[in-house]
Design brief:
single chain; alpha/beta; Glutaredoxin; Serine Threonine Protein Phosphatase 5, Tetratricopeptide repeat; 3 domains; 5-stranded mixed β-sheet; two-stranded antiparallel ribbon; 7 strands; 8% strand
Length: 392
């Protein structure tokens, strides 16, 4: 090595030691959950809260996988940072660069060093942390799962949330990749190509992520019991220690003798074609409502609400449908839910006023209409002034 090279290597080593020293100055409080050991820069209460959250996430994951808990030889480690500088410094010492929000650090030869690292409370962590938390869970039981299984289910669980006030997990299905997968059309990888990606002809990013999510979504939502059972049996037969390509062959061997790949591919493609996003369901519902096909509109809006229970749009439109059907109490409940989930205050109060007036509750009608006019006078003041004499 040249003198210059030696000097650069020494400089790099000193930099790493300096960073490590900075990290060692941080004081972490720790807390134990059922399955996790948490170290938190924010203190004991933060560590306890995060341990409780991680246990709730673990319970959701393992309701699907049913991995034997005897495989866990020690609690899973989570390290939570309160400041970005400290988080970046720590991750940089491990990876040579930083990662936004959260990262799972996995060491095949030193499982005792495996840990999930998170910058708690950051905007980046809101989406990245659930993804990385699932990967930590999966690789605790199967060191090298098939890529399609890891990536597909990590995306599937990205929208697994946690309500710390209630102490319970929340979930809204993640369809963020659906538009992209649909846009691939006939060029989309078929299920066999997805499963074989670790064995031959690996799929490049983002195809592997999108196609893996789509295949997993199909297997979890299909009405074909044989397909779902195959997925569950794959969970059971994956090797805890074999390589990704070996585990991919194990998964493929479980499917091929029992299921026609041609039939599975045909049903998978039909599933993707017919699957609608939340916005597609809302738009289709609006079109059905405009065409006075109220029964169809109701099915579409209810489907949208099942996808995103806390989005105001489906509640508002179901309120309109109930109003049309003279179900005024039901309409009011839907409208109030729409307000709770962030709908336009003036719009919904105007709808509540019309609904209360139709139900014969004149005083309530006046109150709601006046709120609408006050919230958006440019849109509702003239309309409200015209309506108010009817209710006084």
């Amino acid at each position: 090595m040249t003198k210059k090279g030696i000097m650069l290597a020494l400089f790099a080593m000193l930099s790493i030691l300096s960073i490590a020293a900075q990290t060692n100055d941080i004081t972490f409080s720790d807390a134990s959950g059922t399955y996790y050991q948490v170290f938190a820069e924010k203190g004991k209460d933060a560590a306890l809260a995060l341990a409780k959250e991680m246990d709730a996430r673990f319970a959701v994951y393992n309701r699907l996988f049913r991995f034997p808990l005897s495989r866990l030889t020690k609690p899973l480690t989570v390290r939570s940072f309160a400041t970005k500088a400290a988080y970046d410094t720590y991750v940089s010492t491990k990876l040579g660069n930083t990662r936004n929000g959260a990262v799972y650090l996995h060491y095949s030869n030193r499982p005792d060093l495996n840990e999930l690292v998170v910058l708690e409370g950051s905007e980046e962590a809101k989406m990245v942390f659930p993804h990385q938390a699932f990967i930590q869970f999966l690789r605790a039981f199967v060191q090298n799962p098939p890529t399609w299984l890891q990536e597909g289910l990590a995306i599937y669980f990205t929208t697994l949330g946690y309500d710390r006030t209630k102490g319970e997990a929340t979930y809204e299905e993640n369809l963020s990749w659906l538009d992209m997968v649909k846009s691939w059309g006939s060029a989309a990888p078929n299920p066999e190509a997805v499963i074989m990606s670790d064995i031959q002809n690996p799929l490049a990013s983002p195809q592997i992520q999108g196609a893996s999510w789509a295949f997993v979504s199909f297997l979890l939502n299909t009405d074909n019991e044989e397909y779902r059972r195959s997925l569950y049996e794959i969970f059971m037969v994956l090797s805890p220690t074999e390589s990704r390509d070996v585990n991919s062959k194990i998964a493929l061997d479980r499917i091929v003798p029992w299921i026609s790949i041609e039939e599975l591919t045909k049903e998978y493609q039909s599933y993707i074609k017919e699957r609608k996003t939340f916005s597609e369901l809302i738009e289709a519902g609006r079109q059905a409502y405009a065409a006075k096909d109220l029964a169809k509109a109701e099915v579409l809006f209810l489907s949208a609400m099942n996808l995103q229970p806390t989005h105001y749009a489906s509640h508002y439109y179901l309120g309109l449908l109930s109003y049309e059907q003279k179900k005024y109490d039901m309409a009011e409940n839907y409208y109030r839910s729409a307000l709770l989930y962030g709908a336009d205050e003036a719009l919904v109060n105007y709808a509540l006023g019309l609904n209360a007036g139709a139900a014969g509750r004149k005083a309530d009608a006046v109150q709601y209409l006046e709120k609408a006019a006050a919230a958006a006078p440019d849109r509702y003041k003239a309309k409200v002034q015209e309506l108010l004499p009817r209710f006084k």
